[in-house]
Amino acid sequence: MDAFQFSRPTSLNQAIQLGAKASTAQQSADVRFVAGGTTLIDLMKLNVERPKQVVDINLLPLEKIEPTPEGGLVIGALARNADVALHPAVQRDYAVLSQALLSGASPQLRNMATTGGNLLQRTRCVYFRDTAHACNKREPGSGCSAIEGHNRTLAILGTSKDCIASNPSDQNVALTALEATIQVEGPRGKRTIPIHEFYLLPGSTPHRETVLEPGDMIVSVTLPPPSAGTKSHYLKLRDRAAYEFALASAAIVLKLDGKKIESARVAMGGVGTKPWRSPEAEHALQGGTADMATFRKAAEAALKSARPASENGFKVELAKRCLVRALVTTTATT
Ligand code: SF4
Q: Which of ligand 1's atoms lies nearest the C-alpha of 143?
């Protein structure tokens, strides 16, 4: 690990001023905000992240979970994953988010990891974390070791010839199905970003993962008001039952009128280079009957554009079955 400067601002303004140094630095990676530290510190120890300045934002008042005037919920960037998962309003109105969070990591990690940090969780591609191997995401232009290497856990949707890394988060899949918005403050002021616009496909620039600019800080995430009668569910399939990333997962938010599907939002994890919303699956579900034929049609549509690599072809069928099972469970609950 390289030596770095360390600051602990006590106000949002101070933190943003420190972050603003990143917007003028030659490399935006020179300044990093740290909260729970469950991703950044690991990567610094591995020399994957080498910031010159680390800004600890844990003293900022960004840990609250509160209702919005419109009836939604605003979750502070520093709200711990465990606190969000167990919050009564989240469990009551946004079950898919609670289930996704509780399926991730371990109790100890969930006690530390934050909402904002989880949004920026980095890929678990083994080559990204090993500086002995070429990786376009870690070192632009160096090549991708995974395309001809170990890629069993990597993405089959949204890939490019330069990167096939999967997004590892569970939280972000649920937030995508819930159509969350992300509030950001930085050197260019405040802005709100819908989650479907937040993540970038790798294309030829896999080192750019989000639309955040240098110095931008996530301050909160807002969930829209729950619609009466909506049901939601998160299903995660993985190699072992705990402390493991998804091979495939599905977040479902459905509104039913009897057996008729009035509205559907579908997102998938473990298979995409970003939390993967599937308008194709939603289109197949919308207006249909909640039965196996409709669910299978939605699953086929969702995976139609899948492009597996040498070791992860099994994910195509796994993701379809995951989606069907998640839809069966969602529609079976009262
Ligand atoms: Fe790096 Fe992406 Fe290739 Fe993995 S898949 S080695 S993260 S460029």
A: 8
Torsion of Cα atoms, 32 then 38 then 41 then 47, to 10°: -100
Gap from CA of 132 to ligand 1 centroid (Å):
13
Domain assignment of residue 28, yes or no: yes
128 lines ligand 1 (CB under 6 A): yes
Asked if the structure places residue 284 within a domain, the reply is yes
* pLDDT tens column, 134-147: 999 999 999 999 99
Helices 314-332 & 292-302, crossing angle to 10 degrees?
A: 140
Residue 277's H or E segment, with its range, is: strand 276-277
Closest atom of ligand 1 to 145 CA is 6
Find out whether the beta carbon of 163 lies less than 6 Å from any atom of ligand 1: yes
pLDDT digits 0-9 by tens, 110-156: 999 999 999 999 999 999 999 999 999 999 999 999 999 999 999 99
Q: Is 156 a domain residue?
A: no
Output the furthest CA–CA distance in the chain (Å, rounded): 61
| Residue 126 falls inside a structural domain | no
CA of 74 to the centre of ligand 1 (A): 34
Structural domain including 33 reads 5-55
Closest CA to 235 of 265, 273, 269, 262: 269
Q: What is the C-alpha separation between 117 and 36, in angstroms, rounded? A: 7
Residue 26 has pLDDT above 90, yes or no: no
Q: 153 C-alpha to center of ligand 1: Å?
A: 12
Tell which one of 46, 48, 123 to mutate to probe ligand 1, the residue whose CB is within 8 A of the most ligand atoms. Answer: 123
